[in-house]
């Protein structure tokens, strides 16, 4: 039995292929089977989205974001800082290296990222160019060109 949730029934009324569906499905299905670090994919309006990654214990220098060929990649790993050695009596906050990848839909752009209170917030926005927007086609009588005699 598969534990992958299919969102296909939600897109039955669409014609064509919407790659934003893939963003949600890939968020639900992590390729390497790991759930570290946990993250959310949020919708904040018709064209605004946010990915929130739990990055407790990481600093801005420990994280790297990159967009290449429509794929957003988030890498995290502790950097050596030369601090004094710490021996943990109990270490419950995982700080191991990670790599998350998200396939972005057409016209989705990363607007920025912020690390605040242990959460990495990645702001996404859909910017559809004028030529890709829907155009209203008027219905009416069409004048035919006059035939030359």
Fold and architecture overview:
- By secondary structure, this protein is mainly beta.
- It has a domain of 81 residues: Immunoglobulin-like.
- Helix content is 6%, strand content 32%.
- It is built from one helix and seven strands, in the order H-E-E-E-E-E-E-E.
- A four-stranded antiparallel β-sheet has the order 1-2-7-6, with no helix packed on it.
- The radius of gyration is 23 Å and the shape is elongated.
- The N and C termini lie far apart (73 Å).
- This is Heat-shock protein IbpA.
- Belongs to the small heat shock protein (HSP20) family.
What is the spatial order of strands in the main beta sheet? Answer: 1-2-7-6
Q: Please report which band the strand proportion falls in: under 5%, 5-15%, 15-25%, 25-35%, 35-45% or over 45%.
A: 25-35%
Tally of separate helices: 1
Radius of gyration: 23 Å
Structural category is mainly beta
Ends apart, CA distance between termini: 73 Å
Which topology of the domain at 39-79 and 93-132 does CATH recognise?
Answer: Immunoglobulin-like
List low-pLDDT spans.
Answer: 12-17
The total of beta strands comes to: 7
Please give the CATH architecture of the domain at 39-79 and 93-132: Sandwich
**Major beta-sheet overview:** 4 strands, antiparallel
- Spell the H/E element sequence: HEEEEEEE
Bin the helical content: under 10%
CATH class of the domain at 39-79 and 93-132: Mainly Beta
Key phrases:
149 residues, mainly beta, Immunoglobulin-like, 4-stranded antiparallel β-sheet, 3-stranded antiparallel β-sheet, 1 helix, 32% strand, Heat-shock protein IbpA, A-crystallin/Hsp20_dom, ACD_IbpA/B
């Amino acid at each position: 039995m598969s534990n992958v949730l299919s969102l296909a029934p939600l897109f039955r009324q669409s014609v064509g292929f919407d790659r934003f569906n893939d963003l949600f499905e890939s968020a639900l299905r992590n390729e390497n089977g790991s759930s570290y670090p946990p993250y959310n994919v949020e919708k904040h309006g018709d064209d605004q989205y946010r990915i929130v990654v739990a990055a407790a214990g990481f600093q801005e220098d420990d994280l790297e974001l990159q967009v290449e060929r429509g794929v957003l990649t988030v890498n995290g790993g502790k950097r050596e800082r030369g601090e004094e050695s710490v021996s943990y009596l109990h270490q419950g906050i995982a700080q191991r290296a990670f790599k998350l990848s998200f396939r972005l839909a057409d016209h989705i752009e990363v607007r920025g990222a912020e690390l605040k209170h242990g959460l990495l917030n990645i702001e996404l926005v859909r910017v559809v160019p004028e030529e890709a927007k829907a155009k209203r086609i008027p219905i009416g009588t069409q004048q035919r060109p006059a035939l030359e005699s």
